Every structure is written in structure tokens, then in C-alpha cells.
């Protein structure tokens, strides 16, 4: 496997002087080509800032980001981002097909190719036949599928996903998780996905990076050695899965993660205010309560050394 993304000593500071706030400090990691990696960390720790720096939307104030060897200094052509808020990222005045084609117009791909590729990618996300509709005529889950299709249509070298399923109901969320894994395997995409949801990170990923409170530092880098074929019921029931989610939950409650030199009270209040998702059964990285609930319910938090390898 070749290295797709190389993040070295990445630091981002918002503002200057007394108003300066260091959101991420000295982060170093690599993502291999074809990997699906998830980032979890407490609310406000700097996950979105990290993705914005990787995508070139904001400049790093220290360190560097390289995409297949090239230093990122603006938004690279072969990088795509899926955001949580699909309603704000799709163009309501364009049909679904035109929304999906949009990045190809930018790349000056001929019209017939654009149409064919948009149809293909819509089919791969289970939306063939809706190309002529407008986004606002679709359900939230379908709109997020359109966003994913639009991100994939240009065959990006790296797909960044920032809490992509946080605004849909629990059942749709499961469907979109499965869609992401299927598409990633079929296309061999490299994906870096940020989530608050510990269960989701373990279910989706080949690898989970656990971040500390702001300014974010990498506390653990876990291999998720679950079988490639995953199923919302049997995988989540498996001992290996339960053990891994315990491992991540424990890490998120560890002093290493909770310790914070610079996080302000707003961050702490924000973290405490998070209360898991509508399903009520997930464990939320932004909520100590979620982890307690897990411990009470499942009480089998054994060492997961067999299934998780801490790389750092
Ligand atoms: N534009 C900005 N100007 C100043 N500070 C900012 C800005 N954007 C984010 N921050 C601060 O940087 C820190 C990290 O924010 P960021 O949104 O990256 O965290 P996050 O981990 O993605 O949060 P959440 O999990 O709640 O989405 C927070 O303390 C936040 O208040």
C-alpha cells in the first residue's frame, strides 16, 4: 500500500495575540491508499479544524499536509468533502443529476461523459431514477446519498467526511454506513471520516484515531481487525466489536484524552451537553454519560489487545 495522506506536525491556531486559540497542535499521522480511517475525539477538540486543514480550506499555521506526495496549499482537485449538513451543501436550484455533475463541469469534462458518470454514481448509491428531481423533493437520507454521489463522481484520491450521518435518523444512518463501506470497497477509495459516535467509528473503519481534548493530539491509533464483510446486527453483536468499542470508550475517558491545558469552559460545557443520538443506544465521544451507559449495560469491558493494536 502506498501512502495517500501524510500529515506532519500539523498545527492550527485561530486568531492572534490574546484571542489566539490553538485548535490542533503538532499532529502527525499517515493514511494509506485504500484505507477507511475514522477520527473520534471529544466535542470541540479540533476534528473539523483538522479536516479543513487537510482539505486546504484553511491553511495550517504549522507543519504540513501532503496528498500523494504533493504539498496541500489550496483545495486539491482530487479531494472531495462530505459535510454533515446536506441541506446546505446541495444546490436547491439544480436537479439531482446536475448537482452530481457539478464537479465535472468545473473540471471541464464533456457533457456526455458528465451525464454518464453522474448516472453511474447515482446508481452506485442506490438513487438511479431520481436524477431529474430536485434535492428538496428527497428525504434527508436520500439528500446525503446525493452528496456522497457528488463527492465520488470525480473519483477523488481522498474523500473527507465530517460527521456525515449525524443529521439523519438511526435507520438511515445504518444504511449510509453500509453504503460508505460498500462504495469504498468497490471503488478502492481512501476515506478519512470524523464522527462523535464510537460504535460508528468501529463499525466503519479499518483504523480509528482517537484524539485528545483541544488542542487535539493523537492519543491512540487502533487497527480495527473486524472481518471486511460487516453487518449492522451480527457485527455489532460480536465479541470483537464489543471489545473494540469498549477500548475506544475507555480511551476517550482516559486522563490522556480528558487532560487539557488550553480548552476553555465553553468546550467543557459543549462536551457535557452532548447526549448521544436519537437511537439512544450509541456511545458518544462527546459524552461521558454515553460511556457510562455502555459500561452499565454491557459490563464486559475486557482488554481488547487481541483485536486492537495501539500504534501510538
Ligand atoms: N473560526 C474559528 N475561530 C476561532 N475559533 C474556532 C473557529 N472554529 C473553531 N474554533 C475553535 O477551535 C476548537 C476546535 O473546533 P472544531 O470545530 O475543529 O472542533 P470539533 O472537534 O470539530 O468540534 P465538534 O465535535 O463539536 O464538531 C474549538 O474550541 C472551537 O471553538
Question: What's the number of domains?
Answer: 2
Shape from CA axes?
globular
Report the count of strand segments.
10
The number of distinct helices, counting runs of at least 4 residues, comes to 12
Helix fraction? 25-40%
Q: Identify the strand order in the major beta sheet.
A: 6-7-8-3-9-10
Oligomer: single chain
Q: Look at the structure and name the CATH superfamily of the largest domain.
A: P-loop containing nucleotide triphosphate hydrolases
Explain this structure to me?
Strands 6-7-8-3-9-10 form a 6-stranded mixed sheet, with helices on both faces. The chain has helices spanning 47-54, 86-89, 96-106, 111-124, 140-152, 170-187, 198-204, 234-237, 239-253, 255-258, 265-273, 288-298, and strands at residues 3-14, 21-32, 36-40, 62-67, 70-71, 79-82, 158-162, 191-194, 207-211, 218-223. Helix 5 (140-152) runs parallel beside helix 6 (170-187) and helix 7 packs across helix 9. The model is unreliable at 261-282 and 287-312 (pLDDT under 50). 38% of the residues lie in helices and 20% in strands. The longest helix is centred in the middle third of the chain and has 18 residues, at 170-187. The chain is an alpha/beta fold. The protein contains 12 helices and 10 strands. The chain folds into 2 domains: 3-78 and 157-258, 3-Layer(aba) Sandwich (Rossmann fold); 84-155, no CATH class. The site of adenosine-5'-triphosphate has 15 residues, from strand 2 and helix 1.
Amino acid at each position: 500500500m502506498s501512502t495517500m495522506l501524510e500529515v506532519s506536525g500539523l498545527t492550527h491556531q485561530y486568531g492572534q495575540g490574546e484571542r489566539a486559540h490553538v485548535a490542533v497542535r503538532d499532529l502527525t499521522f499517515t493514511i494509506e491508499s485504500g484505507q477507511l480511517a475514522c477520527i473520534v475525539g471529544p466535542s470541540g477538540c479540533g476534528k473539523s479544524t483538522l479536516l479543513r486543514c487537510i482539505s486546504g480550506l484553511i491553511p495550517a499555521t504549522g507543519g504540513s499536509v501532503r496528498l500523494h506526495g504533493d504539498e496541500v496549499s489550496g483545495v486539491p482537485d482530487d479531494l472531495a468533502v462530505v459535510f454533515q449538513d446536506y441541506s446546505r451543501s446541495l444546490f436547491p436550484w439544480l436537479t439531482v443529476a446536475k448537482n452530481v455533475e457539478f464537479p465535472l463541469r468545473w473540471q471541464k469534462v464533456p457533457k456526455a461523459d458528465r451525464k454518464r458518470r453522474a448516472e453511474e454514481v447515482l446508481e452506485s448509491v442506490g438513487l438511479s431514477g431520481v436524477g431529474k428531481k430536485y434535492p428538496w423533493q428527497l428525504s434527508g437520507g436520500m439528500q446525503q446519498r446525493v452528496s456522497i454521489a457528488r463527492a465520488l463522481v470525480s473519483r477523488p484520491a481522498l474523500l473527507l467526511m465530517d460527521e456525515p450521518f449525524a443529521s439523519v435518523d438511526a435507520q438511515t444512518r445504518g444504511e449510509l454506513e453500509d453504503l460508505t463501506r460498500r462504495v469504498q470497497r468497490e471503488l478502492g477509495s481512501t476515506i478519512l471520516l470524523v464522527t462523535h459516535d464510537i460504535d460508528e467509528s468501529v463499525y466503519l473503519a479499518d483504523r480509528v484515531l482517537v484524539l485528545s481534548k483541544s488542542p487535539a493530539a493523537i492519543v491512540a491509533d487502533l487497527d480495527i481487525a473486524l472481518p471486511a464483510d460487516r453487518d449492522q446486527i451480527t457485527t455489532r453483536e460480536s465479541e470483537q466489536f464489543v471489545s473494540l468499542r469498549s477500548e475506544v470508550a475507555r480511551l476517550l475517558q482516559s486522563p490522556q484524552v480528558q487532560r487539557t491545558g488550553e480548552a476553555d469552559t465553553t468546550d467543557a460545557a459543549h462536551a457535557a451537553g452532548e447526549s448521544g443520538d436519537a437511537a439512544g443506544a450509541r456511545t458518544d465521544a462527546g459524552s461521558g454519560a454515553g460511556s457510562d451507559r455502555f459500561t452499565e449495560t454491557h459490563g464486559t469491558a475486557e482488554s481488547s489487545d487481541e483485536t486492537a493494536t495501539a500504534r501510538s
